[in-house]
Amino acid sequence: MIEAINEALDLMMARDPDVIVMGEDVGYFGGVFRATAGLQNKYGKNRVFDTPINECGIIGAAVGMAAYGLRPVPEIQFADYIYPGLDQLISEAARMRYRSAGDFTAPLTVRSPFGGGIFGGQTHSQSPEALFTHVAGLKTVIPSTPHDAKGLLIAAIEDDDPVIFFEPKRIYNGPFGGDYDAPSKTWKTHPGGKVPEGYYHIPLGKARMVREGSAMTVLVYGTMVHVAEAVLAAKGIDAEIIDLRTLVPLDIEAIETSVEKTGKCLVIHEATRTSGFGAELVSLVQERCFYHLEAPVERVTGFDTPYPHSLEWAYFPGPVRIGEAIDRLMSE
Amino acid sequence: MTADKPDGADPGPRAASVGQPRGNLPPLELYVPEPRYRPGDAVDYSHLEIPEAGAHSRPDETCPPVETRPLCDGLVRVLDEENRAVGAWDPGLDPDTLRRMLRVMALTRAFDDRMYRGQRQGKTSFYMKCTGEEAISVASAFALADDDMVFPSYRQQGVLIARGYPLVEMINQIYSNRADRLKGRQLPIMYSAKDHGFFSISGNLATQYPQAVGWAMASAIKGDTRIATSFIGEGSSAEGDFHAAMTFAAVYNAPVVLNVVNNQWAISSFSGFAGAERATFAARAVGYGVAGLRVDGNDALAVYAAMQWAANRARANAGPTLIEHFTYRAEGHSTSDDPSAYRSAQEREEWPLGDPVARLKAHLVALGEWDDERHAAMDLELAEQVKKATKEAEKNGILGHGLHHPFHTMFEDVFEDLPWHLEEQAEQAIRERRTKWPNWKEFSE
Questions:
Q1: Residue of A51, A56, A247, A288 to mutate, interface with B, max B Cβ within 10 Å
Q2: Which of A44, A213, A266, B6 is the most interior residue, by most CB within 10 Å?
Q3: Which long-range contacts (CB under 8 A, 24 or more apart) does A314-321 make?
């Protein structure tokens, strides 16, 4: 997935001279995850540069650059460290078009690795997407495959609205089925690992049908797409799995169509439970598909604790927790 | 919950659980700043060190930041006691320019007076004057090129007026009426005028500071010749965004002029709560490797000269400048504020740097280029100009009188396109309207 992100950045920088990449360690070094490797060498220090360790400054400067007319792609090294930039994102980037009635806009794409499953402890594992989906004016995008990462990142950079682009770092180098004892896989044999060369974009707001099925609808994104797929396959459930890809704007049609067909819905995310994005999904399904539901909507999430280090796999919403929810849904 | 106390019962005062004096060390003391004067106090500003006009030399505009250190603790002043322009910082402006500058400053004051009254008459919800600070925004605007981008706070209306933004547009925004370019979305005075190089004002303090630096960086990336400038109050300089902006400005040698308008007060908090008792605001500059200037903010010529110096420096790729404008907020913070509750009314009268409009007027009079009659006639003319603009804007409606932008516009511009959930909510808003007033119809423009 890292290579796909690098390709998307490379391609957009080549196509659009206004695209600028900035962030901590993104320049000469190429990023702590190698997402920006080679870009400074190719495009110069004026377009790919390291920044001071100051997330408020990174996002604030990007807002000013966007107001000038550039298309900045700032990186926040870990989503856990995006909080010092929140005022600039929430009060400024998200509201620029609205408060100025289109006089100024903020076409920036904030890339940030997110999610756990890597023994990252409290501050290298968080999934703060719900903080952003709650903000009017921000789009939130989370890819689950290299193919989608490239297409979605290209679309995000082209989009004239500010986009939060969360990259599930657990699956940077290969899919993860939730079994932490299993040997790690690469993207080579995965269908989502095939990344077309050149330009293509995946429209924001469109979900991906991972697997069609009739037993239940599974709403999921990021790393958990692969975990859900593996658990359901292992249990032999004919579920319809929908990778949301974009949380805002949300592909409500795909959700409604599927739940009306299956009559059951399972929502999975790694983020903490209370007021997580899952609550929004459950509400929407309840409001819009109520008369089609044959069972209460199930929600499998991380626990309402900070992300622990040693007990990571007890925290992670893995196969056991997901399996129990599936059993409850299937028994209705 | 213990059995003898019902839920919600007051458990009584809590005993201190931390902090015991130990050994023979003196107990530590917390220092909480306190302004010198409170309501009713007699005011004496003799402790303020006010250098004479012309006392400072003017370093080369491309000098290393450290050479500006003496200027960070001093005060650049051009107009002397006899209202003459003196010293190395005299920008040598011709009388026509001085008269135009005086006129814009007087117009800004006339505009403030009328808008303040308009708020008291219920025509709008809110207003903020810049009385006593007109020189800072107006003279700065005169020293900048028209296409330099200004990232203002809410007290630089003088920049808009100096750049010829129509007063009617400003009033439309203040009234949130159907002609308001911001469609009634923004609190009064939070203007946005890209075509006048005036960035969208945010309610969140100091956020515009790193944005101005980013804009300046973009200009440099593109090999442009335009520079950026930003204004914050001394109170907002305590925000983290100030540090971010100064660091980024220094690191990338950004072509930006960062201004701190030190008007002594942040609502009810005196400048000591932003650190003024320990160092000047200009003195923060050199520590970042940024040039610093501290100027008499009520001296239009000093403000002009400082902004011109800093703008030239930025344009020459010699780096950013931080300018502290030393001034006094002559009126309340806003129409929602009563300064008599926290400061002495005498402060304004005793302020040693006087009134910026009166001082520039006196300078022109001393030059033999102006007189009381012409000034009085100008004031009458400006009041009439503002009145006329007000009447014109009122035709488009005042707040709460029904002449506003169509309902649907509330949902537009959140994103470039309306997503499904906003379309649904827009329909809901209109449905609610019809439920309350069955015959309600959106007015047509």
A1: A56
A2: A266
A3: A315/A116, A316/A116, A316/A117, A316/A178, A316/A180, A316/A270, A317/A224, A317/A227, A317/A268, A317/A269, A317/A270, A318/A178, A318/A179, A318/A180, A318/A227, A319/A178, A319/A179, A319/A227, A319/A230, A319/A231, A319/A234
The ipTM is: 0.97
Which residue in A has a C-alpha nearest to residue B211's C-alpha? A64
Of residues A227, A330, A217, the one with CA closest to residue A270 = A227
Determine contact, residues A16/A73, Cβ cutoff 8 Å: no
CA nearest A138 in B: which residue? B415
Where are chain B's structural domains?
Answer: 65-394, 407-436
Check A65 against B199: CB less than 8 A apart.
Answer: no
Nearest to B409 by CA among B445, B358, B385: B445
The SS3 of residue A47 is coil
Does residue A190 carry a catalytic annotation? no
Query: Minimal Cα–Cα distance from A39 to chain B, Å?
Result: 16
Q: Enumerate residues 6+ apart whose C-beta is below 8 A from B14.
A: none
Q: Which superfamily does CATH assign the domain made up of B65-394 to?
A: Thiamin diphosphate (ThDP)-binding fold, Pyr/PP domains (3.40.50.970)
Please tell me chain B's helix, strand, coil percentages from 3-state DSSP, rounded to the nearest 5.
40, 10, 50
**pLDDT tens-digit profile, chain B (445 residues):** 455 677 888 888 888 888 877 788 888 999 999 999 999 999 999 999 999 999 999 999 999 999 999 999 999 999 999 999 999 999 999 999 999 999 999 999 999 999 999 999 999 999 999 999 999 999 999 999 999 999 999 999 999 999 999 999 999 999 999 999 999 999 999 999 999 999 999 999 999 999 999 999 999 999 999 999 999 999 999 999 999 999 999 999 999 999 999 999 999 999 999 999 999 999 999 999 999 999 999 999 999 999 999 999 999 999 999 999 999 999 999 999 999 999 999 999 999 999 999 999 999 999 999 999 999 999 999 999 999 999 999 999 999 887 888 889 999 999 999 999 999 999 999 999 899 988 887 764 4
**Per-residue buried b or exposed e for B186-200, using 16+ beta carbons within 10 Å of the residue's own CB:** bbbbbbbbeebbbbb
Chain B contact for A205 (CB, 8 A cutoff): yes
Cβ of A249 and B183 within 8 Å? no
Nearest to B52 by CA among B360, B328, B296, B293: B296
Question: Is the minimum CB–CB distance between A139 and chain B shorter than 8 Å?
Answer: yes
Listing DSSP states for B337-364 in one string gives --GGGTS-THHHHH-TT--HHHHHHHHH
Looking at beta carbons, which residues of chain A come within 8 Å of B205? none
CA distance B81 to A127: 63
As beta bridge partners, residue A29 has none
